[in-house]
C-alpha cells in the first residue's frame, strides 16, 4: 500500500491499515495486531474468541468455506470479503488474505490472515464478480 492509502494493485482505495490475525484450525483467534482498534476493540478483547462470531450472519458460510480452503492445497475459494462487527455494533467491510502457517510439533493447523479494510462498494463489486 502506498503512503497515500491508495492500493497499488488497482483493487480500489484502501481504507486503512490491515488487521493481522493468527488463528488455530478451529478458528480461535490466537493473536491480533493493535490495528484492530479501528473496529473499536483492544487485542485482548479478541484473543481467545472465535473469529466467526464477529462475522456478519450472511457472510459466515463463505467465511467458514474460505478458512477451510486454506488447509486444502489447490482448493479454489470464493470471494474472500466479509463484514465484521465493530464494537459499537456496526459493520466494517474487509478483504482477507489468509495463509496456512508451516506446521511444527507446537503449531499445527494455524493460519495467518491479513484483513484489508475496503469500502462497501468494493465489497459488493467483488461479490458480483
Can you tell me about this structure?
The structure is a single chain. With 129 residues, the protein is an alpha+beta fold. It has one domain: PAS domain (Beta-Lactamase, 2-Layer Sandwich), CATH 3.30.450.20. It contains 3 helices and 5 strands. The chain has helices at residues 43-46, 60-70, 120-128; strands spanning 19-23, 29-32, 81-85, 91-100, 111-118. The longest helix is centred in the middle third of the chain and has 11 residues, at 60-70. It is globular. The model is unreliable at 1-13 (pLDDT under 50).
Keywords:
3 helices; five-stranded antiparallel sheet; 129 residues; disordered N terminus; alpha+beta; Beta-Lactamase; single chain
Give the secondary structure arrangement, pairings included.
Elements: E1 19-23, E2 29-32, H1 43-46, H2 60-70, E3 81-85, E4 91-100, E5 111-118, H3 120-128
Antiparallel strand pairs: 1-2, 1-5, 3-4, 4-5
CATH topology-level fold name: Beta-Lactamase
Chain oligomer state: single chain
Mean model confidence by pLDDT: 84
Main beta sheet: strand number and arrangement?
A: 5 strands, antiparallel
The shape, in one word, is globular
What order do the strands of the largest sheet run in, or round the barrel if closed?
2-1-5-4-3
Enumerate how many helices there are, as a single number: 3
- Beta-strand level of the residues, as a percent range? 15-25%
Radius of gyration from the alpha-carbon trace, in angstroms: 14 Å
| Structural class determined from secondary elements | alpha+beta
- Second CATH tier, the architecture: 2-Layer Sandwich
- How many DSSP-defined strands? 5
CATH superfamily: PAS domain
Amino- and carboxy-terminal Cα gap: 23 Å
Amino acid at each position: 500500500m502506498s503512503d497515500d492509502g491508495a492500493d497499488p494493485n488497482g483493487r480500489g482505495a484502501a481504507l486503512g491499515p490491515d488487521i493481522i490475525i493468527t488463528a488455530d484450525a478451529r478458528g480461535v483467534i490466537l493473536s491480533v495486531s493493535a490495528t484492530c482498534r479501528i473496529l473499536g476493540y483492544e487485542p485482548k478483547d479478541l484473543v481467545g474468541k472465535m473469529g466467526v462470531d464477529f462475522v456478519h450472519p450472511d457472510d459466515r458460510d463463505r467465511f467458514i468455506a474460505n478458512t477451510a480452503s486454506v488447509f486444502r492445497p489447490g482448493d479454489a475459494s470464493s470471494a474472500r470479503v466479509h463484514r465484521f462487527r465493530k464494537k459499537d455494533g456496526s459493520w466494517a467491510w474487509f478483504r482477507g488474505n489468509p495463509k496456512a502457517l508451516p506446521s511444527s510439533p507446537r503449531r499445527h493447523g494455524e493460519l495467518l490472515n491479513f484483513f484489508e479494510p475496503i469500502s462497501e462498494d468494493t465489497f459488493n463489486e467483488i461479490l458480483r464478480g
